[in-house]
Design a protein that fits this description.
Strand content: 5-15%
Number of strands: 5
Helix content: 55-70%
Shape: elongated
Radius of gyration: 24 Å
Amino acid sequence: MPDLNVFIVDDDASVRDSLGLLLSLRGYRTAIFSDAESFLQALSPDWRGCILLDIRMPGMDGLALQRRLLELGCSLPVIVITGHGDVESARHAFKAQAADFLEKPLDQGKLMVAIDEALFTYQLSRHENEQRARLAGRLATLTPREREVMELIVSGGHNRDIAEELGISPRTVEVHKARVMQKLNVDGVAQLVRYSLGNC
């Protein structure tokens, strides 16, 4: 995953250094921050990867940063790490959509699994978002009449039924149908139905 980073946010310099070294030796790219404020100042919509986030930090703590990232619409999965784990902290972390909650001292095996799962989930979500964007772009090229024809096709209408409902000839329905297939780059009604449901 060459374009993905693990962003480490922890106020403890020894933890930052050991995590940075460990992850670099395992082939991960890292970016390191000593507090939530510096992370937020540097945060870019172009960033890809996941966040390793400590809870207890001076200034804005990790849970507050999590909530702020949600407000900003940041899609980077967050793995919470803490030396002061308790049920209440875990509950708040997962409520703010944490990918995982790990207690210090960190178990390397569990950490690697958590990071790999977070990056996999992120990549999957990113791929699905890109697919949805492509779908929306293609659908936007349809004329209102082509959109009507497509909706009637995927609801099970036959050419003659569609022609009668729209007050056009079956031949015109065929023309619109062919254009819809071409614009959406599909080669059959089954694929068109999948496309209309956002599954292509």
